[in-house]
Design goal:
Elements (H helix, E strand, L loop, with lengths): L3 H21 L16 H8 L3 H9 L20 H11 L12 E5 L8 H14 L4 E5 L5 H4 L5 H4 L7 H5 L16 E2 L5 E4 L8 H7 L11 H9 L5 E5 L6 H9 L2 E6 L3 H20 L10 E6 L6 H14 L12 H8 L4 H4 L19 H24 L2 H13 L1
Parallel strand pairs: 1-5, 1-6, 2-4, 2-5, 6-7
Antiparallel strand pairs: 3-4
Bound molecules: adenosine-5'-diphosphate and magnesium ion (MG).
Amino acid sequence: MSSVLEEVSQVYNKAALSLNHIKKQNLLPDGKKIDSLQLPIGKVTEIVERTRQSVLNAEKNNIIKPRSINSATNRREGFTLEQVHALQAHFNTQPWRETNDDPIIIAVQNFKGGVGKSTQACSLAHYLATKGYRTLLVDQDSQGSTTATFGYLPDNDFEQDQTLFPFFYGSFNNEKPCQCINHAIRKTHWDSLDLIPANLLFYESEYVLASYLKDNSIEPLTLLHEGLQGVAKNYDVIILDAPPALGFISLNVLAAANAFIIPTPPALYDYMSTFQFLTMLFKLFKSGIIDNNRPFHFLKILPTRVESNDVETTLLEIMRQAYGEHLMKNVIPNSRYIKEASNLMTTIYEMASIPTPSSDNGKKSRPISSMTGYKNARKAMDAVNSEIESLILATRTSRIKKLIQEVSYE
Ligand SMILES: Nc1ncnc2c1ncn2[C@@H]1O[C@H](COP(=O)(O)OP(=O)(O)O)[C@@H](O)[C@H]1O
Ligand SMILES: [Mg+2]
């Protein structure tokens, strides 16, 4: 009979070997993702809020680097995100908040795994950053699937010190607790989008935070809130991808957010666990364990992985009646393309432009087997993200004041 240690170490070694093999086959990202989006001019005019002619004139006048020419078709390629954002800067149409507007800190949270939290957090981040919002995506799940979306193997590519662990531990700069989370913020290949990565080693933050319970000088639930306040001035939106469990990291996410998106598939089991999550939320805020007097903007239940079968349609209808305006109007369908995108460690927004595996030297875009199915999934994702964008814009007091002024001058 072999020992459990022997058995586990054998399987562990096999897993490590297979990971290397998968990496060699180019099935995993290599940490070198580049801005590969090619936005068509129709989409660009929408984002920069100018006519096609104005965009083309700006390109002709070298406001942006001219697009490259596709040698096969002899036509201009699409616009990169950097070009789109340069155009926004030129036309002064960046959707940046005024300094007196709150940066929105959205927790995508539910205590259940597999409900689409990371998928939603990454898609929303890609959507908002494309539109030019200065966005920070904070991975707080030690499984690191959000981190992997940016081309990393979280456990290979990051040391513990590159996550928020040193911040929670308080040893960074030898302060306790440390006020600064700057060390963990990194630029991504997606212009206007920064990332704080997580990996398995980040999980030790749980124990560190628990140990602060004995130390009366440190409040273990509001550290993330304090850290984010230090960098929030640089962003319009901060998105927190929460872990799927109730623990100190989750509680920090709850206490740091000023808006919640709660993904919930309309399936009985998920529905029940969302109810447990809301019960917990209610108790935590009611008891004042998490400060209930802070500015708060919105809480929405987001139906995810929605199938069109009878049981789910009935449950969705029950959800609509029960939650009313707290349920998002748009829903995320269960889609093989959304699933495939996360299998490829990307989102539906990037999926069409990432190269196929090694066979073609990474030059050709991935063929999408059913353009209609892909477009439908993307349209649904756009509708949800645009609804969230409207919620964000509605929180801007400066914008509301401006609208009131405009109306009263008419
Ligand atoms: N709308 C969807 N349609 C199909 N599969 C989905 C959808 N959303 C998520 N998934 C899949 O479900 C799994 C879990 O999603 P994920 O976003 O990681 O959930 P969580 O972060 O809540 O654990 C992933 O494999 C993902 O591809
Ligand atoms: Mg997740």
